[in-house]
Amino acid sequence: MSTNILCLDDEPNYLLILEAMLSDAGYSVTALSDPETALAYLDESDVDVIITDMKMPRMTGQDVLEHVKKNHPHIPVMIMTAFGSIEGAVEAMKIGAFDYITKPFSNEELLLSASKAMKMSATQRQFRILQESMEERYGLHQIIGRSKPMRDVLAMVDRAAPSRSTVLITGESGTGKELVAKAIHFASPRQKNPFISVNCMALNPGVLESELFGHEKGSFTGAVARKRGRFELADSGTLFLDEIGELSPETQVKLLRVLQERIFERVGGAESIEVDIRIVTATNRDLLECVKEGTFREDLYYRLNVVHIQLPPLRERREDIPLLVAHFINKYAELNKMPVKAIAPEAMDYLCAYEWPGNIRQLENVVERCMVLAPGEAIGVEDLPPEIKDEESQFKSAVDLLPARLDLADTLEKIEAALVRRALIRNDFVQTKASEALGISKSLMQYKLKKYKISTGM
Length: 458
Ligand SMILES: Nc1ncnc2c1ncn2[C@@H]1O[C@H](COP(=O)(O)OP(=O)(O)OP(=O)(O)O)[C@@H](O)[C@H]1O
Ligand SMILES: [Mg+2]
Description:
alpha/beta, Rossmann fold, Helicase, Ruva Protein, domain 3, five-stranded parallel beta sheet, binds adenosine-5'-triphosphate, binds magnesium ion
C-alpha cells in the first residue's frame, strides 16, 4: 500500500511543487487548496500524513491541526510556514504539529521531514491495531455467556470497573477469573495504563516479596542491581494478584499495609514509595474458610473483599455451553487458519451433559483438540475424548438437573418410572423386549407398569 499524503495550501504554485517533489519520491499525493474540502476528504479517505500551510484564508494551519488532533489523532501533521514567521512555527509545535518546514524549502528538507512523518504514522497505525485487538480480546463482549449467572457477573464487572475499589474474584479452576480481572481493567479509566499480574503461588515467599516490592542493589545475595517491583510497575494501572489464598503470613502483613497506606519500601530499602493502583485478586479457595482455619488474616480478607465477584462453575450454566463451543470453534479455526467445523447435534448433547470439572478451560481444550483432530467437516461423537462420553459423568449431570428437593426414595421412583417408559418406547411397546432391555423379569415389568400407571400403548 502506497503512502497517501494530503497537501493543503491556498497557493496553487506551492501545491504543484509539493506534488511534484513527493510523487517523484514515490508517495501518492492528494493536493487541495480549500481547507474545508480537505477536512471532508480526511473523513472519507485513508490519509497517512498531512502537510498544511499555516496562513490560509478562512482557516489557518493551526485550525487544521486542532481538527486533526481531535478527530484523527494518529495522523502526523507537518506545518509549512513563511520564511521568518518563527512564532507561528513555535505555536504549531506547541499544540502538537509533528514537524514544520519554512518556505521556500529544498527537496531534501521536505523529503527528510516527510519520511520521518511516515515512520511515525506507520508506528501509530500498528499501535492502534494492537490496541484494538487488545480491547477486543478483553472487552466485555469477549466474556461469553447469556445465562442468568453470567449476566449477573457482567453487570457486576460493569458496575465495579469505573471505581478504584478492590475486587475479589472467586470461582473454581478454569471459570474465567483472570479473564474477568482483565475485563475489569480494560473497562476502567485505567485501561491505557499497565495491567500487571502476579501469581502468588508460582513464587516462593522470599522471591515473591522482591517481585512485589522490588529490591535495592545488594539487599541480598544475587541482588546485583536495583529492581522495581510489580507494585511500582503497576502504578496508575491495575495489579492483579492471582491465587491470593497462597500468600504466606509474612507477605499477608506487608500486603495489608500497602492496601491501607498505598506506600511501601523496596526490599533492603528505606525510601517510601507511593503508588496509585487498583488491586484485583483471585482465588479458587474459600477464603472465609481459610480465615476460620487461621491461614488467612481476617483483616486482609475484609480489605480485599470490597467488591466480590463469584464465578459460577460451568455445570451450573449449561445453557452457555453451545455459545462457548461456537466461540472456541471460531477461535481455533482462525488461529490454525482452517475452515470452521460444524458440530453434530449428538456431540453437542454430550458436551452439554458433561460435568466439566475443569470448567471453561477444559471445554476450550476439548474443542481445540476436536478442531485439530476431527478428520471431517463436522465434529462427531466419535471425535470426543472418552471422558466426555463416560456414563458415570452423565449420571452426575442428570442428577444436576433434578429439582431442589432430594428425597431419595421419591426421586429414585421417579427415575425408575422414566426408565421403564423410555424402555417401552425404544422397544415399540413390546413388553418382553422392554423387560429384557431393563434386565428384569416379565412379571416384575408388569408390576412396575401397574405401580407407575404407565400406559402400555394399547
Ligand atoms: N466466559 C468466558 N468466555 C470465553 N472464554 C472464557 C470464559 N471464561 C473463561 N474463558 C477462557 O477459559 C480459559 C480459562 O480462563 P481463566 O484463565 O480466566 O480461568 P481461571 O479462573 O483464572 O482459572 P485458574 O483458577 O485455573 O487460574 C481462558 O482461556 C479464558 O479465555
Ligand atoms: Mg487463573
